Amino acid sequence: MIKWAIIFAIIGVIAGVLGFGGIAGGAFAIAKFLFWAFIAIAVILFLLGVTVFKKVT
């Protein structure tokens, strides 16, 4: 997921440099969403790993 966020950020930068403002804004919006979704999932899995899965084993 973080790989796709980086890809969309690069697409946004290239589109912005070439003058495609709408495409650049859309690509950055997708990149920002994917980045924060990755962070949220990573935090949830970390908390589950520290609490729930440690008790199971």
From TrEMBL:
The keyword Transmembrane is annotated on this UniProt entry: yes
UniProt entry tagged with the keyword Magnesium: no
One CC-aspect GO term: plasma membrane
Pfam families in alphabetical order: DUF1328
Keywords: Cell membrane, Membrane, Transmembrane, Transmembrane helix
Residues that span the membrane, as ranges: 7-27, 33-53
NCBIfam families reported in the protein's UniProt record: PRK13682.2-1 (NF010231)
Family membership: Belongs to the UPF0391 family.
Protein name from the UniProt record: UPF0391 membrane protein EPA99_06865
Organism: Pseudoxanthomonas composti
Lineage, top ranks: Bacteria, Pseudomonadati, Pseudomonadota, Gammaproteobacteria, Lysobacterales
